[in-house]
């Protein structure tokens, strides 16, 4: 086996018109102590990726997970007690538990908490796409761990495209089922939106960057044949598979089974303190999840934009799981305080609060561009910020879906035990 090739030229030759240049070569074979399966290790940088800071960030994020899981568990234990239904022994309750009683609090909105989210078509399409992106991300990370996809150029991207197309039924099933439970009727339009929302965003951004690349005669320009192939995948693979998933979702998971009856007339939302407003919760909801992946973002950005090969996918899997847990816990806490303020608009709030992590990632990409790279010019700037916008959008949809799903289970749990008069 050949494990390494080194090309060395002997002397330089001046190029002149009409001069014939003889080419000769000599091959020297030398035994190498490097095993064939380890031939790629020379291109890796363990001193960078396995630095103590990397390990410390994982430990720091893990401690954050323990704290947040403990906080959510405390909230559940305090609210789901055996005297949960009536809070009859009012004189024995402390101040916090009295706040959760019948006078005011989250129980007062039981008739509106399961009211369908506004703009149900867009909401269900984004949740369906989020399920798909989550499955794709987890699958690609596992494939990279098992198959060492980083050793071949383009193999990671090819795997991601294949897995995305193959998991289109996941998008249709969860998005279509949610749309049916929200009372949606225009399911074909919802299916098309769900199938093409992310591909259209990716293709639109890529084509825009491609036009700039063609103008600058850059090697990054995408061939026309590749564009046609991607379009065919969207039309003849992703759309039919999404339709199959949508039909299954509407028939198998499309019946609402809420634990509380929805009132005919919406309950007015009382005034609350400024930090309980949904907009404030959305902005603050992404701070802790971003903090849990902040260091890993630096390593990922460096591998993508500074020509280092990212190979520590075990770290990435661990950070991915930590991000999911932190996102769910933070979103549950945010929703708990929102409902306690008698504001039942939790669906979009929980989704956007979790998705706001991507906003912080995109802002961090500005810092990285100006202080960590030496890029300049229209093409490099458009290429960087265009693809970082796509990365942030996919991350936001994924985190938003995870946050909404976790919060939905939490809301269903706390209201399923309430005895309604």
Automatic annotation (TrEMBL):
Main location: membrane
Coiled coil, from the record: none
GO biological process per UniProt: protein localization to membrane
Domain of life: Eukaryota
Location in the cell: Membrane
InterPro entries referenced in this protein's UniProt entry, alphabetically: EMP70
Membrane topology annotation: Multi-pass membrane protein
Keywords, in A-Z order: Membrane, Signal, Transmembrane, Transmembrane helix
Transmembrane intervals: 53-76, 120-145, 157-180, 192-216, 222-248, 279-301, 313-339, 351-370, 382-405
One annotated Gene Ontology cellular component of this protein: membrane
Signal peptide (from-to): none
Classification via PANTHER family: TRANSMEMBRANE 9 SUPERFAMILY MEMBER 3, TRANSMEMBRANE 9 SUPERFAMILY PROTEIN
Homology family: Belongs to the nonaspanin (TM9SF) (TC 9.A.2) family.
Name of this protein: Transmembrane 9 superfamily member
